[in-house]
Amino acid sequence: APGHRDFIKNMITGTSQADCAILIIAAGTGEFEAGISKDGQTREHALLSFTLGVRQLIVAVNKMDTTKYSEERFNEIVKEVSNFIKKVGYNPKSVAFVPISGWHGDNMIEATTNMAWYKGWEKETKAGKSTGKTLLDAIDAIEPPSRPTDKPLRLPLQDVYKIGGIGTVPVGRVETGVIKPGMVVTFAPSNVTTEVKSVEMHHESLPEGLPGDNVGFNVKNVSVKDIRRGNVAPDFQNSPARECASFPAPGLGMDPPGQIGNGYAPSLGCHTAHIACKFDTLLEKIDRRSGKSIEDTPKFIKSGDAAMVKMIPTKPMCVEAFSDFPPLGRFAVRDMRQTVGSGI
Q1: What is the pLDDT of residues 212-264, one digit of tens each?
Q2: Same domain, residue pair 24 and 135
Q3: What GO MF annotations does this protein's record show (predicted)?
Q4: Strand-pair partners of 169
Q5: CA-to-CA dists, residue 35 to 29, 116, 186, 232, 294, angstroms
Q6: What is the pTM of this model?
Q7: Residue 192: which domain range?
Q8: Number of structural domains found in the chain
Q9: Does residue 14 form part of some domain?
């Protein structure tokens, strides 16, 4: 997603389906500083990536050609970004920092001769140490996360297509469970029940779609008008997902520009859904460090506060308990075209 406020909604939808984020940073004088400023897009993208559960990060410092391939500028950016992503929640030691030029192809696929000072990136995770020189090396070093195939099916829809000669084809990423031909699914919150006729990935038919797979699946007797992005496909016979009338958000951290209270109605980005949700009741204010309650039914919360809030979606929405289905239980709170909070 480009670094522009108008595309953050798309960025949230895509990020909710990702295993790893690549943060592209412009090295040019003024460009980097604008992106990392309080309202900058570099900052917001990194924060949203962590909020939406992406735990692996690669930082590509782009446009190095505009800095005359300066080692000093690269080191300055690495230091600044390391400090910031640490505050967000990432461990800088587990992040590969790669100086690149997309325009000239430096360090994209092959190591460049324009930055002789660059000895390569190194990162350390629970799986061990890995090293490399290029952005492609860093992508190859992404660790596949464990895939929860034993849980009930949850597949948030990214889009729904009408394909000539085939019919209605919803697409999305399998978050948990397995989807296979012959399975009966009931889309939530649309409450449309249908049979899966076929499952495909990259134009190849699959016997089943597993967690992490971005699949398209053909469904019987369903119009593209009946289901939409933000719907969730579960197995009708195994713990199906339901529409949510209201839900408690126990781990809500807020950073709004002013004070907010009961009745506040920002937009929530949860998996692929974007729905306005009303803060029905501020139940308690919580100490961010200890997680303990410090005030019951507060009148308002402000920047830096954490709270337990009863939320009511203004339109039908599918949300799950974070402990059961993490990808469907974490969300970003947005208002006035900026991220003002996150929670589970």
Answers
A1: 899 999 998 999 999 999 999 999 888 888 878 778 777 677 777 788 889 99
A2: yes
A3: GTP binding; GTPase activity; translation elongation factor activity
A4: 161
A5: 11, 27, 42, 34, 35
A6: 0.73
A7: 155-233
A8: 3
A9: no
